[in-house]
């Protein structure tokens, strides 16, 4: 049995008296390559934000044997994350790179390698505010930072959003080459686009898991 990296027991999240996540019980294991699917409002993004410690919640949630709420900094050192919508960061590109490099010990050579493969000329834009970048450039920057970290857990919410077709191919190629024990969770509406990357499919609906099944071995 693979090691449990994320353990969830009776997880509940309530917004405005509405249970967005309902008594969820779920384990994510080292080596899982998960497609997390479901309609808007199914609870996918809320679950990801609970895992990241962004939300309070009821129940038990452990990430790498730590609480994402009380030990968030330690958890985030081991978790790479690409959100569906880029955050409204006011820092310049250089400030973001320096910040991430310092707190996550990111190998900047690896970062530049990935960003160049995605056709993002980082050095040309280092003095620009992140907010001034195009949607595609923001996504490429965040993807490069997440992958360069070589995290134990990689969470991506609609990872190919804002990426051109060539960049999508590059991204998926890097995802296929992740270390064997990395836990990868891809929240996506495009199951056909990521089917070659995953070995487990979890479908959520109205805050509950309605499908959780193993898939055929990842194609190479």
Could you give a quick summary of the protein structure above?
By secondary structure, this protein is α/β, with parallel strands linked by helices.
What does this structure look like?
- The protein is of the alpha/beta class.
- The chain has a domain at 4-85 and 151-214: P-loop containing nucleotide triphosphate hydrolases (Rossmann fold), CATH 3.40.50.300.
- It is built from seven helices and nine strands, in the order βββαβαβαααβαβαββ.
- The strands form two sheets. Strands 5-6-7-3-8-9 form a six-stranded mixed β-sheet, sandwiched between helices. A three-stranded antiparallel β-sheet has the order 2-1-4, with helices on one face.
- β6, α6 (165-176) and β7 form a beta-alpha-beta unit.
- α4 packs across α5 (135-148).
- It is globular.
- 36% of the residues are buried.
- The model has no long low-confidence stretch (mean pLDDT 91).
Decide which structural class fits the backbone: alpha/beta
Question: SSE order in H/E notation?
Answer: EEEHEHEHHHEHEHEE
- For CATH, the homologous superfamily of the domain at 4-85 and 151-214 is named as P-loop containing nucleotide triphosphate hydrolases
Helical amount: 25-40%
Number of strands: 9
Q: Per CATH, what is the topology of the domain at 4-85 and 151-214?
A: Rossmann fold
Question: Sheet bearing the most strands, described?
Answer: 6 strands, mixed
């Amino acid at each position: 049995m693979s090691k449990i990296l994320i353990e969830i027991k009776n997880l509940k999240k309530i917004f405005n008296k509405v249970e967005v996540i309902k008594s969820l019980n779920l384990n994510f294991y080292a080596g899982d390559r998960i497609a997390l699917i479901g309609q808007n409002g199914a609870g996918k993004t809320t679950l990801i934000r609970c895992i990241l410690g962004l939300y309070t919640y009821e129940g038990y949630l452990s990430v790498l044997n730590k609480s994402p709420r009380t030990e968030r900094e330690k958890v985030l050192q081991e978790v790479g994350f690409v959100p569906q919508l880029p955050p409204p960061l006011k820092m310049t590109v250089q400030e973001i790179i320096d910040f991430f490099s310092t707190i996550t010990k990111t190998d900047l050579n690896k970062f530049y390698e990935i960003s160049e493969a995605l056709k993002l000329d980082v050095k040309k834009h280092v003095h620009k505010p992140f907010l001034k970048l195009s949607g595609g450039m923001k996504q490429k920057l965040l993807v490069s930072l997440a992958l360069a970290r070589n995290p134990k857990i990689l969470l991506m919410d609609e990872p190919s959003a804002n990426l051109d077709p060539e960049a999508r191919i590059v991204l998926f190629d890097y995802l296929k080459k992740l270390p064997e024990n990395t836990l990868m969770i891809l929240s996506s509406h495009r199951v056909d686009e990521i089917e070659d990357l995953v070995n487990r499919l979890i479908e959520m609906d109205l805050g509950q898991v309605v499908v959780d099944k193993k898939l055929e071995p990842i194609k190479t």
